[in-house]
User: Fold this.
Amino acid sequence: MTDQAKLDAMLDALDQGRDAALNRLCDLLRIPSISTDPAHKADVRRAAEWLRDELAGLGFQASIRDTPGHPMVVATSQPGGARSILFYGHYDVQPVDPLHLWDHPPFDPQIADGQIRARGASDDKGQLMTFIEAARAWKQVHGALPPGLTLLFEGEEESGSPSLVPFLRDNADELRASIALICDTGLYADGRPAIATQLRGLVGQEVVIRAADRDLHSGSFGGLAANPLMILCRALAALKDDSGRITLPGFYDGVRDLTDQQRADWDSLNFDAPEFLSRVGLSQPIGEQGRTGLEMIWSQPTAEINGLSGGYTGEGFKTVLPAEARAKVSFRLVGDQNPQTIRQAFQDHIRRFVPADCTVEFHDHGASPASHMDTSDPAFDTARAALTQEWGRDTAFIGMGGSIPIAGDFKTILDMDSMLIGFARDDDRIHSPNEKYDLDSFHKGARSWARILAGLTLPG
Amino acid sequence: MTDQAKLDAMLDALDQGRDAALNRLCDLLRIPSISTDPAHKADVRRAAEWLRDELAGLGFQASIRDTPGHPMVVATSQPGGARSILFYGHYDVQPVDPLHLWDHPPFDPQIADGQIRARGASDDKGQLMTFIEAARAWKQVHGALPPGLTLLFEGEEESGSPSLVPFLRDNADELRASIALICDTGLYADGRPAIATQLRGLVGQEVVIRAADRDLHSGSFGGLAANPLMILCRALAALKDDSGRITLPGFYDGVRDLTDQQRADWDSLNFDAPEFLSRVGLSQPIGEQGRTGLEMIWSQPTAEINGLSGGYTGEGFKTVLPAEARAKVSFRLVGDQNPQTIRQAFQDHIRRFVPADCTVEFHDHGASPASHMDTSDPAFDTARAALTQEWGRDTAFIGMGGSIPIAGDFKTILDMDSMLIGFARDDDRIHSPNEKYDLDSFHKGARSWARILAGLTLPG
Assistant:
């Protein structure tokens, strides 16, 4: 059998096995693996065990790996193949409150109208099962698992992943691969297949400015004594000039221009910024003039005030000069912007506004650089072609405005690029009542992985 | 007997009657007239009754005047005299918590080390009794009360004076006089006698800027969607230029230069701004360059942020673009600055920063112009001379940075200037545990009023 014939056979097997695959997904969805709720600790473990058993049944070397929190599931196939692959998904789910807003019990999956409805259907059990089903079809056709494959399933993604980084560190040699596949994202807004190739980084910083040693009466002291709220406002306002450009010296060092390919890809998405903003009651893009909406959220860095407080904020009025003012400020980073350099530039900026008789204190909250995948790795074109073929629509390399910590961790700890490929849709109501996954996402997702695996693991 | 001989006789009577006067003050101090605490409602009334009885005993037409809150006490002497006078004080007191910080029960007055210690000793029972003692001495020497005198004692000053304005309105004809004497302030910092002749006004304004219809994820929307905290910071920061001058168009219209007399008076006070600031842990005056410290707090207007809140302000960090941001902003006004004009200029200023897809909402909180007394009224020189004679130190016409609402109300409702004269000292611990009043303040205060009454009520 040619490689193409084998692929066709796999796709055929997936088509034939649709109902059985759906039944397996329903089994997993019935386990209420809510990781943030201690009452469900045993359920989370049960989901891990279910996965281990499922994978062992397919021929993986599969094991449950305990952590201080919920366990990891790790499964490996036989060595070999053109490149080694680490696949990541998570088997824990979000809480289900408010329960009365669900149309059915959240852990009793309902199949109707081309959808499967349950907590975790889309995030992330349905997605991770697309990959397992592809592996199953591979085994069926090849008589063996896809070679060089490691699967890592986490049980704490919805509760902050406290055990993930130590686990990656402790098991780096085992987990490191040529490339990582992360299946926890979606199709592009209009349903086009997409591979996220760049994610913005983040620096978070809390600032506390203190002036007098107590709150002062604005009659007795106003006009003479420093007001830390005014100092803070002036300092934060000066972070941007009138055109919206961030003023920190050297801030834009490392920001990259889009490649022609990216620009073409992004333009082809026909992103309509006013329409996108209209979904949240807004209409006007605020980024630098001349930038497209997608550049503003994907490839341009930001400076944002995420929280600010000081003085009297209750009902009515109090003519107080507050003793202190606090702000939480974050920067979304792109390209090679260095989080530590930017943190330092920000602190220097703030200090310039703080008079000699006031003090400023900083608290660091997170610092991660942007992730830019090396799309010159042929794996990206392989995956793009596979997705395009499966979905019958051009696949786009897209950006993401937020950070996906796992991708950064894979890069930092395992020195491995990731392809973020997923089949969720914007209307899947993840984290909300009546979460669903389209049956099409599930089925074509599995077929997509079959194609991608064929492209990645077979030589040539 | 000449007028001077009569005055000497009054002063002599006050000297002879020191102990009896102190006993009377102790009687009043023993009544726990805490106006803000409903549990002390009857005590507040008892204090009013005590005053009414005391004043009736002196020959005043004295009555308790009920209000929706605590009662007023109004007492009038016979008509006549060179000018009519309204004297104001308040007989209610602050709460006493935390009780364990008191060295003695707060309503059991202690006399020691030249001080009388009790809640209300300085604020304001001791002060109002200085005037009653002066009236008593007058009666003793003249055989009749000082002519043309009305006394108004309030029982709600420490709880926001809710009944005062309606009471003034309803009884305007009865209360209107040539001049008001308000005894609820202190000597100047170094113990010099002082008459406050100007008070800053106030405009308070709450601002709410709303952007998206929900909190947004700063990864998905940051750089594209408006951040109301950033808008608010930029708008508020732009209220002042780098020299500290307020930028609202027309803001300084009506700000007056100091008169030569004022400048001489204020310079003579040797106000040491860094020393004053050092008491609250600061050192650097922030006002416009070239202004003295007293100008900054007395005769220059201000723009202050009294409170600001928006976004996530709890522990840790949340990368949110908040849906709204709120600030409470106030302006201290001087001269003829118009509160409504400034409120409007402020609103116009803020609106210029709010993009078309965001909204701004304003809530008004108070608007009172500055009070500048007409010191060309000879009453001021009369009082100044009387105080200088009593205290053996030059009396200063001073300003006050805060508003004293009663002075504004007398002006607005009764078209009457006030002389704010008091004998409290900076270390009297008003509103705090172990409040005290110097026996010297009490005694020389009474003697001061005898001199002032002689100067004001006698023709020529």
In short: The two ends of chain A are 16 Å apart (CA to CA).
